[in-house]
C-alpha cells in the first residue's frame, strides 16, 4: 500500500521539485507574452502604397518587409487584390527579387507572391509569365535553400497548370 511519503518521493524526480508550482507557470506566461509582443512589433502594417514605395527603394531590408507584406496581403484575404499588385507594377520587381541570391528570404517571399498571383486567372498567370518569371524560377530549383526551391516548384506548377501554352 502507498504511504503518505510516496508523493514526496515522486516529487524528487521532477525538475521543479520543492519549488512553488506557480513560478514556472508565471515564467511561461511572461515568455509567451514577450514572444507575442516581439512578433507584433515585427508585423508592420503596410498599405499597398507603402509596399510600392518600399519595393522601389534601394534598401534590401525594406524589399523583404514589403514583399512579405504583399504576400500576407494576398494570402489572408478571401478575394486577394491580385490585380492591384499587377497594376501597381510589382511583378517586375518581384522577378528581380528572385535573382537576389544573397537574400534567400527575399527570394522565398517573392516566389510566394508570384505563386499566389499565378494561381489566379489566366490573365494574372500570363502577367507573371510576360514579366519573365519562368527562367528565374527554374534557376531557383537549384537553390541550396529547400524552402526557396519548394516555393519555385509551386510557382512553376501553378503556371504550368494554368495553360499548356506556358
Automatic annotation (TrEMBL):
SUPFAM superfamilies: ARM repeat. InterPro entries: ARM-like (IPR011989), ARM-type_fold (IPR016024), Armadillo (IPR000225), Importin-a_IBB (IPR002652), Importin-a_IBB_sf (IPR036975). GO terms for biological process: protein import into nucleus. Residues 1-58 form the IBB domain. It comes from the Eukaryota. Keywords: Protein transport, Transport. GO terms for molecular function: nuclear import signal receptor activity. ARM repeats lie at residues 89-132, 132-160. Pfam families: Arm, IBB. Belongs to the importin alpha family. This is Karyopherin subunit alpha 7.
Amino acid at each position: 500500500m502507498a504511504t503518505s511519503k510516496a508523493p514526496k518521493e515522486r516529487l524528487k524526480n521532477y525538475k521543479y521539485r520543492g519549488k512553488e508550482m506557480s513560478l514556472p507557470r508565471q515564467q511561461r506566461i511572461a515568455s509567451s507574452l514577450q514572444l507575442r509582443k516581439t512578433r507584433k512589433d515585427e508585423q508592420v502594417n503596410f498599405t499597398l502604397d507603402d509596399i510600392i514605395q518600399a519595393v522601389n527603394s534601394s534598401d534590401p531590408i525594406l524589399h523583404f518587409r514589403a514583399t512579405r507584406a504583399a504576400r500576407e496581403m494576398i494570402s489572408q484575404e478571401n478575394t486577394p487584390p491580385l490585380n492591384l499588385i499587377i497594376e501597381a507594377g510589382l511583378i517586375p520587381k518581384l522577378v528581380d527579387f528572385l535573382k537576389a541570391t544573397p537574400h534567400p528570404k527575399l527570394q522565398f517571399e517573392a516566389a510566394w507572391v508570384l505563386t499566389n498571383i499565378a494561381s489566379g486567372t489566366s490573365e494574372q498567370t500570363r502577367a507573371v509569365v510576360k514579366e519573365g518569371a519562368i527562367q528565374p524560377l527554374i534557376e531557383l530549383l537549384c537553390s541550396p535553400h529547400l524552402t526557396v526551391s519548394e516555393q519555385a516548384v509551386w510557382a512553376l506548377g501553378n503556371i504550368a497548370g494554368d495553360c499548356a501554352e506556358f
